[in-house]
Design brief:
Helices cover 70% and strands 0% of the residues. The protein has 212 residues and is mainly alpha-helical. Residues 19-79 form the HTH tetR-type domain.
């Protein structure tokens, strides 16, 4: 490791894996962003959250902008991974509520809730930062494609659903999910059950199909 690094190990102690350390820093930064917003995020706070030597975070991410962009990419990567797993869960016809409904409801508590709050902080900040906007929206097409696959399976088997209708169903369902998650950040717990959410999503998909 570079001798100037604050993590340069004494003796023969094993040095940390750089990629793992970056992910760890980003995950801690996500928590801090959720708690304090962009203006309250700092390299020193991340160091203190992880009990790392002062200067460690700035060694990996030289500026706060670099740190924010990196944590935005981390949020997008984790969101995409979880959404992929959730839609595969549904594709395998697992019993009980859909993987998507479970994923949405999980966003109301614990670590996923911190990421939910951080996601909306990033979206607000992205309105003033085109480079951050590009990161925040980097996987939007893939997200929408996964939702489109999900709603295609929600439609009656064998039904010839035009692509335009599938696109509308996917778009409206995406906006519904986004709105529910935003409501979570405001303390709105109107929807508390994954099965209930499945019924709402099914009604939305059926309603759009019926309108055409």
């Amino acid at each position: 490791m570079n001798a100037t690094s604050p993590e340069a190990p004494p003796g023969n102690r094993r040095k940390p894996d750089p990629d793992s350390r970056r992910r760890e820093i980003c995950d801690a930064a996500i928590e801090l962003l959720a708690e304090d917003g962009v203006k309250g995020l700092s390299h020193l706070k991340v160091d203190r959250r992880l009990a790392l030597p002062d200067g460690t975070t700035s060694f990996y991410f030289r500026t706060r902008s670099a740190l924010v962009h990196a944590l935005a990419q981390r949020v997008a990567e984790r969101d995409l991974s979880e959404l992929t797993a959730a839609t595969e869960f549904q594709a395998n016809a697992a019993p009980g509520p859909s993987g998507l409904a479970r994923l949405v409801m999980a966003a109301a508590t614990g670590e996923p809730f911190a990421r939910t709050k951080a996601r909306y902080e990033l979206m607000l900040q992205a309105n003033r930062d085109p480079d951050l906007a590009a990161v925040v929206h980097s996987n939007s097409d893939r997200f929408l494609g996964l939702i489109r696959d999900f709603v295609e399976r929600m439609n009656p088997q064998g039904a010839a659903i035009p692509r335009m209708v599938l696109d509308q169903q996917a778009y409206v369902l995406t906006q519904l999910i986004s709105g529910i998650m935003l409501a979570f950040t405001a303390g709105d717990g109107t929807i508390t059950d994954a099965g209930e959410l499945d019924r709402i999503m099914a009604a939305v998909v059926a309603g759009i199909a019926g309108a055409h």
